Amino acid sequence: MAEAPRRDEVVGNIDALVEKARADGVPVVWVQHSDEELVQGSDEWQLVPELVRAQSEPLVHKSYGDSFEGTDLEDVLADLAVGRLVVAGAESDACIRSTIHGAFTRGYDVTLVGDAHTAGDKSAWGAPPAEQVIAHTNLYWQFQSAPGRTAAVVETKEVAFTG
């Protein structure tokens, strides 16, 4: 997150989403990635200090892009009777993209919060600038469709957890 564009805005939006979910009595599930480059327990691996997980909120540790692969996320969601995911975080072009597709193919309705995800600069490897990656992810996800499922992109202020 240190080098991510709009880092403070994105973190602030995620914090607002978490607080709104808590106030509405909606479960908050945290997902934390680790791999050879992002070592579990390292300073870089820690959640940003502005985001504080409540002890009662599940934490899923993952090591693949898709938060469902090799984790107990589906069991956690089933225990909480969750059928719709509101997704925010990092990295837009890796973990976020893999997770929204993974959730959708598993039958979940998936709302991507367009102003609450970000990515680092991977242009050295031929990727577009991070702002374009974020915009493209928001663009194509709003047109995702499948029988019996919904996909949407909304801004933080438009997220409705109830009703």
Automatic annotation (TrEMBL):
<keyword id="KW-0378">Hydrolase</keyword>
<dbReference type="InterPro" id="IPR036380">
    <property type="entry name" value="Isochorismatase-like_sf"/>
</dbReference>
<feature type="domain" description="Isochorismatase-like">
    <location>
        <begin position="3"/>
        <end position="124"/>
    </location>
</feature>
<dbReference type="Pfam" id="PF00857">
    <property type="entry name" value="Isochorismatase"/>
</dbReference>
<dbReference type="InterPro" id="IPR000868">
    <property type="entry name" value="Isochorismatase-like_dom"/>
</dbReference>
<protein>
    <submittedName>
        <fullName>Isochorismatase</fullName>
    </submittedName>
</protein>
<dbReference type="InterPro" id="IPR050272">
    <property type="entry name" value="Isochorismatase-like_hydrls"/>
</dbReference>
